[in-house]
């Protein structure tokens, strides 16, 4: 990649500047300049949420319908260090469903594996249900195709949806804090 600042020597859309979350988009240039932007506040982050693969929004493989040997996902309760185990670069939770899955975990190298309460691992709603597509997904996609990314992210309907989702996220975050206080640090 070549631009006004020269070549990009490092690029990440999940850069961990302040620990696990929030993550950033980072572009490090050869001249020493670094561009940092919170992923969730970037146009790329908005597009990522609107345009993820449609089949993911209706995925039937949840909870009792899992056919894998192991299910791995982010251990959201560990974010911020309130729950153990914690690593500022991220922590995953894993469910072993089969004997083969148990064997694969037993031979894993360079992993720190600790037991955690099942209820803590089940905290992520993505384990229970598919996350529905964003409203106005089609409108966003059409604007992206015809007018570009900035125009799609600037649509009034998209901005209104993002404000509503931001308010809901704040309420969920407050609820999660209360839930953590009730569950205690386990």
TrEMBL record:
<dbReference type="Pfam" id="PF04432">
    <property type="entry name" value="FrhB_FdhB_C"/>
</dbReference>
<dbReference type="InterPro" id="IPR007525">
    <property type="entry name" value="FrhB_FdhB_C"/>
</dbReference>
<feature type="domain" description="Coenzyme F420 hydrogenase/dehydrogenase beta subunit C-terminal">
    <location>
        <begin position="38"/>
        <end position="106"/>
    </location>
</feature>
<protein>
    <recommendedName>
        <fullName>Coenzyme F420 hydrogenase/dehydrogenase beta subunit C-terminal domain-containing protein</fullName>
    </recommendedName>
</protein>
